[in-house]
Amino acid sequence: MIKAKLMVAPNVKRKPMEKKPFSLTVDLDFLYPSEGHSRVYEEILAAIERRDGLICLTGDPGTGKTVICRRLMEELSDDYNVVLVNTPPKTPDDMTQTLDDAFAEMDGDAKVPVAIFDEAQHLDDRCLDHVKLLTNLEKNGGKLLQIVLVGQPELAETLSQRRFTQLEQRIGAKLKLGTLKKNEILAYLSHRLTVAGLGEELRFTPGTANYFFKRTQGVPRLINRIANVAVVEALEGKKHKIGARIVKRAEGKVNAARGDWIEERKPVVSAPRLSALLFLLVLLFGAYLYQNPVWRDLLMGVRGAETQAVTAPSRFALKVGTFLRKAEADEMQQNLAIKGFPATVLSKDLGEGWTLYQVRLTGSYSLAEAVSEIDKLRNIGIQTADKIPVGPRSAN
What we know:
Helix content: 40-55%
Order of helices and strands: HEHEHEHEEEHHEHEHHEHHHEHEEHE
Distance between the termini: 70 Å
Number of domains: 3
Strand content: 15-25%
CATH topology of the largest domain: Rossmann fold
CATH architecture of the largest domain: 3-Layer(aba) Sandwich
CATH superfamily of the largest domain: P-loop containing nucleotide triphosphate hydrolases
C-alpha cells in the first residue's frame, strides 16, 4: 500500500492536499485493486497471453471499465503494442484506418498488437461484423490481432443476438465488472485519502461505509461524487473524521444541484390550462365553420377521404431474411424455390463498400394471406419471416 506522504502533528497547520482524492477523472495513482477489479484484470491478461483474439468486458456506468483500459495501456509488458480507441469508429473503413494508423510502425516488429475499444456498445452492426473478419488474422498458430471490446451491458445484449452468433462464439473471455462490496468501501475511501496525502489527518468512520453502500450500491463513480463534497466540508470545518452526518449533508448538496435543474422547468405546469383554452377555441371555431354549408361540405369531404384511405385494404410483402453476403441470400432463395416458395433477392447499397441483401417472397399478400404464409415458413424452420406494408397495387 502506498504510504502517506503528509505527516501532520496535532495543532500544526494543514498543508494543501497533493491531489483531489475523489476526482471523477481517471488517475491510475488512485487505483484501488478490489477483488472484482483484480480478478477481471488478471483474466484479461491471461486471455491476451493465450492469444484468444477477442475479449469482451462489460459493466454498468461508473464501475471502472475505463480504469481497466488505462491500466492495460500502462502495465502490459513490452511484448505487446497496445492502442486504446476511446471514440468508437463509425464505419468498417474507419476502424481499419484507425488500426492501420496505430500500428503503422509495427512492420517487422515482434510485438503482439492489442486494440482496446472503449465504449464499444456504440459500435454499429457493420463494425461488429468487421471485428469478426479481423479475428480471422492469424500468425504462428495464434490470433495476430488481440481485440478487447469494453462497454456497457448493451454490448453483451447486442452480441447475444442471432446475427452475431459467429462473433459471439469467437470471444475467448466474456467478463463483467461489478461494483465494490460493502466490506471494501471503507478501504477504498481510506486508500484514496492516503494517495492524496490526507491519510494521516482525515478519515471516514466505519459507519459511513454502510451509508455509502446503501446510497450508491457500491458504484465507485457515485461514491466519489458524494465523498468529494464530504472531504471539502470536513477540511473547511477543520474536522479529522468524516461521519455519516457529513456524508448525508454532502449527498444532499449533490442531489440539491439536480433539483435546481428540475425547478427551472416548473413554468411548464401551466401547460394544461393553456391546452384546455386552445381546445375550447378550436371547438368553438369548428362549430362556427360547421354551421356554414360550404365549409361543412368541405370538411365532410375531407373526413370521408381520410376514412376511405384508412379503410383501404392493406397489402404486404414477405421478408424472409437479410444478409451481408449475396451468396447467402442466393442460397436461401434456392432453398425456398425447392420447397415451393418462389422468392427474389433485393439489394440496398449502404455505402462504404457495404451492401445489404434481402430475400422476399414474390408477389404481395393480404393480411390474412401474409399470416398464413409466415406460418408455413415457420413450419419448415424459417423463423425470420416478417411482413412489410406495401402499396395496394405493389407487386413486390
